[in-house]
Write a structure and sequence with these properties.
The structure holds 2 protein chains of 2 kinds. In chain A, helix 1 packs across helix 5 and helix 2 packs parallel to helix 3. The longest helix of chain A has 18 residues. By secondary structure, chain A is of the alpha/beta class. Chain A has one domain: 3-Layer(aba) Sandwich (Rossmann fold). Chain B is an alpha+beta fold. Chain B folds into 3 domains: 41 residues, no CATH class; 125 residues, no CATH class; 145 residues, Histidine kinase-like ATPase, C-terminal domain (Heat Shock Protein 90), CATH 3.30.565. Chain B has 6 helices and 10 strands, in the order βββαααβαββαββαββ. Chain B has a 5-stranded mixed beta sheet. Chain B has a 3-stranded antiparallel beta sheet with strand order 1-2-3. A two-stranded antiparallel ribbon of chain B has the order 4-6. In chain B, a hairpin with a 2-residue loop joins strand 2 and strand 3. The chains are: A alpha/beta, B alpha+beta.
């Protein structure tokens, strides 16, 4: 178990369970934190709201669903990129949508990758395994800078 | 007589020559007793005549001058209103401005003419305005209807899109958890139970394809057309390579004309070829000597492309339903499919202003022809 964390932003409990299962099938094991809407994701990332007292490092990878309650995925991504503390964190959009607008907006706002969740669970497990190995093992994350630097 | 009598009498009569001379007999009882000679110089007469002529010419010239002056003086009141009327008529016809009016100068015939002219203009103006209003109303109505239709169409498209899209999420759950059951609880399930779960998984896979195809179909209609010159040969070769990779065991001969230039949206052309070549690949699946041909031909004056296979073919009696959504001519167990592919292809071809048709016979393969109307630089 590495100290690298994956932040899973997912409101659908079935998808959450299946994604966690897919992540756990991989040879790489990471701590996975689940938040269930856009607001909670921002609270977690910026240590605010219910996460004001929580002491946790920035996640290495954010798996971001787009259709979320309260604040949607695009807005979450925009705020992540707008803030110097989080602007370099790897964000992979993991969504049902393959809409051109979603793809365009996602990449415009600086998503590192965009993956459509396959219906076929075996394919989904494979996809999640690939991205976990790539982003958590192969990819060198940007150097950590102290907040406010 | 200044010159006195002439020396020699001449013949009787009148002689001329700068002056008038007259010789006449003087008879007494039938016997000539002498000759009368009268000579008159008419230079004075000529002078008078000349004087008269000059006077006459002078009077005529004076009269002409007077007439000229008079007419120019009279022109203003008589012709000015007519000139003005003509000018107004010219402006009306030029500017199509029926609100113009001629000025009325008096109550005479010209005044009456101007009045009637203005009345006519008023009538035309009223009709013109009514016509304009009717046209505006019609335009407005057409605009409204078009907007309504576009809105309804958009709504329908986005409805079908979101249905297809939103159905994917529960489908993922069904497939995912069936898989989990098979993996984690296979010990508690007998073969029949596992068989049922397999069926659930198979059905969700098929539905997944169906939803993907529906989303593609809707995307084809909604995405903007960006046509450019495309050589379809390398595109087809790549698709064929993918098909071969998916089923490396199959031996299929691909025959292609080179090059195959078309003018269309590259992304959409790829979907067309994906479907047509994919179908040809699929329906030749039961032949050992499968052959797919992709070429071009002049058919009824149209520059058409064709994809020909020697596969299962179909009964031409059903050809009209070939391009309807969800309509299939083969059993799922024979050749799997969703019945959306050819509908998608047709939509793409129609969006390019082209047409698509097929020729086939059961067991004798099929040929799909398609054209792109917007083709430029055909070679």
């Amino acid at each position: 178990m590495t100290d690298k964390t994956i932040l899973l932003v997912e409101d659908n409990p079935d998808d959450e369970l299946l994604t966690l299962r897919a992540l756990s099938k991989s040879k790489v094991t990471n701590k996975v934190v689940v938040v269930r809407d856009g607001q909670e994701a921002l609270d977690y990332l910026f240590h605010q709201g219910e996460y004001a007292q929580s002491e946790h490092a920035l996640p290495t990878l954010i798996l971001l669903d787009l259709h979320l309650p309260r604040i949607d995925g695009h807005e979450v991504l925009r705020r992540i990129r707008a803030d110097p503390r989080t602007r370099l964190v790897s964000v992979v959009i993991l969504t049902s949508s393959k809409e051109q607008e979603d793809l365009q907006l996602g990449y415009d706002q600086g998503a590192n990758s965009y993956i459509q969740k396959p219906v076929n669970f075996s394919e989904f497990v494979q996809a999640v395994g690939h991205l976990q190995v790539y982003w958590m093992v192969l990819n060198e994350p940007p150097p950590r800078t102290p907040p406010g630097a | 007589m200044a010159e006195g009598a002439p020396g020699k009498p001449r013949e009787d009569g009148i002689a001329k020559g700068g002056h008038l001379e007259y010789y006449g007999p003087v008879l007494l009882k039938g016997e000539r007793i002498g000759t009368i000679y009268v000579r008159s110089d008419y230079s004075q007469l000529r002078d008078w005549t000349a004087a008269y002529a000059w006077t006459f010419a002078g009077v005529v010239a004076l009269m002409a001058l007077l007439a000229l002056v008079l007419s120019s003086l009279l022109q203003k009141p008589f012709s000015a209103p007519l000139v003005e009327l003509a000018e107004i008529a010219r402006q009306v016809s030029e500017k199509k401005d029926y609100s113009l009016r001629a000025r009325k100068h008096g109550g005479d015939e010209t005044g009456l003419l101007v009045e009637k002219f203005n009345e006519m203009l008023a009538q035309i103006q009223a009709r013109d305005e009514a016509l304009e209003e009717a046209r505006n109303q019609l335009e407005q109505r057409v605009k409204e209807r078009t907007r309504d239709l576009e809105e309804a169409n958009k709504e329908l498209e986005s409805f079908s899109y979101s249905v297809a899209h939103d159905l994917r999420a529960p489908l993922r759950s069904i497939h995912g958890f069936s898989q989990v059951l098979l993996e984690d609880y296979s010990g508690s399930l007998d073969d029949t139970g596992k068989g049922y779960l397999d069926r659930v998984c198979g059905a969700t896979r098929r539905m997944g394809h169906l939803l993907d195809d529906m989303l593609n179909l809707s995307r084809v209609t909604r995405s903007a057309l960006r046509p450019t010159q495309v050589d379809m040969r390398p595109v087809a070769a790549e698709i064929f390579g993918d098909l071969q990779q998916q089923q490396p065991g199959r031996k299929v001969e691909l025959v292609m004309a080179a090059p195959l230039p078309a003018f269309g949206d590259p992304g959409l052309i790829r979907i067309v070829l994906d479907n047509l070549l994919g179908n040809a690949w699929k329906f030749t699946g039961k032949r050992g000597d499968a052959r797919i041909e992709f070429g071009q031909a002049q058919i009824d004056g149209d520059h058409a492309f064709f994809v020909r296979d020697n596969g299962a073919g179909f009964d031409m009696a059903h050809a009209t339903k070939l391009f309807s959504v969800f309509h299939r001519l083969h059993r799922e167990s024979e050749f799997p499919g969703t019945g959306v592919g050819l509908a998608t292809v047709q939509r793409i071809v129609l969006r390019h202003g082209g047409k698509i048709w097929a020729e086939s016979a059961v067991g004798q393969g099929a040929t799909f022809y398609f054209t792109f109307a917007r083709q430029e630089n055909p070679s």
